[in-house]
Amino acid sequence: MSARPFPIGVAPFGRAPVPVVPSLTAPILSEAFGTRPLTGAAPGFVLATLPPGLVLWVQDRLSRTEFGAPFLPGMGRDLLRLDLTRPADVLAALEDGLQSRALAAVVGEIHGHAPALSFTASRRLALRAEAAGLPCWLIRHAARPEASAARMRWRLAPLPSATDPDDPYAPGDPLWLAELFRARGQPPSTWLVRHDRAADRLDFSAPAGDRKLAEPRRKAG
Predict the structure, then answer these.
(1) For 44-91, how does the pLDDT look when each residue is reduced to its tens digit (9 = 90+)?
(2) What percentage of residues in the chain have a pLDDT greater than 90?
């Protein structure tokens, strides 16, 4: 997966200047929060950022119950799934995964407030990711941001998909409103992100600034 970083001052699609996009495959701990309940914005965005290779994807019980398990044939990625019960088990599995040379990245889904995910636990995970040279993502469902050592923290909102060039009634490429609300060495920024599935690439542009952009598409009638 590659991300297209537009330099500041360049405005694709006639939009406002676009902030520089950070590396999404950097060997760091990142967090992704969904802005709406029961949407796949955060998992979808994280999935689109993953590098080629085998990825460990771990879920706790509530994440699996509320959001379902990844449908492997439709993922477009080589995933090794692990279904666990508690957030503490997810964190332990991620730490173990970061010690494997067979993996390209590790991803964990944790639902709700998790006392096991303390600042100390997140710092340990961040240090393990940097030492291993692997990206590590935590997807936080139904949770508010708390103290964390994650180097990047994102909020993701789903948007109506792009138009399918072959069928106007079919969903096109996924679109998200992505807010980087905390990052080391980078100011907070917001982008409109499109996953170009044909090229397997994330395209970043400046949001339109229209609140209607983030409203879900409603079926007529």
Answers:
(1) 999 999 999 999 999 999 999 998 888 766 667 889 999 999 999 999
(2) 67
Q: Are 49 and 30 in contact (CB under 8 A)?
A: no
Closest by CA position to 33, among listed 136, 149, 142, 158: 142
Assign domain 2-6+23-205 one CATH number from 3.90.1170.50, 3.40.50.720, 2.60.40.10, 3.40.50.300: 3.40.50.300
- Alpha-carbon separation of residue 23 from 152, 164, 174 (angstroms): 10, 28, 20
Contacts of 73 (CB under 8 A, 6+ apart): none
State the Cα–Cα distance between residues 202 and 204, nearest whole angstrom. Answer: 6
Check: CB of residue 166 under 8 Å from CB of residue 133. Answer: no
C-alpha–C-alpha distance, residues 206 and 189, integer Å: 9
The residue type at 211:
R
Alpha-carbon distance 48 to 69, whole Å? 16
Average pLDDT taken over every residue of the chain: 86
